[in-house]
Amino acid sequence: MTIKLYANLISQPSRAAEWVMWLKHLEHELVLTDFGSPTFTSPEFLALNPNGLIPVLQDGDFSLYGNAIMPYLAEKFNWSDLYPADVQAHAKVNQYLHWHHTNARLITPKVLVPLMHTKQNIATPEEAVFIKDTPALLTKLVELMEKFLVKDFVAESDHPTLADFAAYWSSCRSSSWASTTFPSTLSSLLGCSV
Hints:
By secondary structure, this protein is an alpha+beta fold. The protein has 2 domains: 3-76, Glutaredoxin, CATH 3.40.30; 87-192, Glutathione S-transferase Yfyf (Class Pi), Chain A, domain 2 (Up-down Bundle), CATH 1.20.1050. Helix content is 51%, strand content 9%. The protein has helices at 12-23, 43-48, 69-76, 87-102, 107-119, 125-132, 134-148, 162-167, 175-178, 183-192; strands at 3-7, 28-32, 56-59, 62-65. It has a 4-stranded mixed beta sheet with strand order 2-1-3-4, with helices on one face. Helix 1 (12-23) links the parallel strand 1 (3-7) and strand 2 (28-32). Helix 5 (107-119) crosses helix 6 (125-132). The chain is flat.
């Protein structure tokens, strides 16, 4: 059975998973899913991910979602270049992936969505505060990225790992803002661009 990736390439985790699958020439079906689509609330989709969110990977009768997709594929297909066998490098990748989802991903609900709602004239008072706090949030996140990037890549390896694909997050949208203040982050983002 063909591996399926349900995704919307506006979604950073969707892009990261698709990018890794593309880079590794993994034959799969990309099921593009529009935000707001009834797909997200269908019983079939909710059986794959009860959260009703993307990305979702379906591999036969097995499914999983979010940043768990990339490690699963790396382990299944032995992509040790992206998910190192070395225990410490492996731990660095896992550490970043766990940090990423509750930190770097804040850019979506606290920056991108409020900006989009502002342009649509539907921003809430809370979103106005998020927009006001955007420079501080971006500074905090990119300062932390500078600390993760002791070497050129997150796992302190000589090549990109799954952590770097996840790290090529929404900050690429703010790379011009970060260019002089955060050179390691910018260098990593540019170095990872395929």
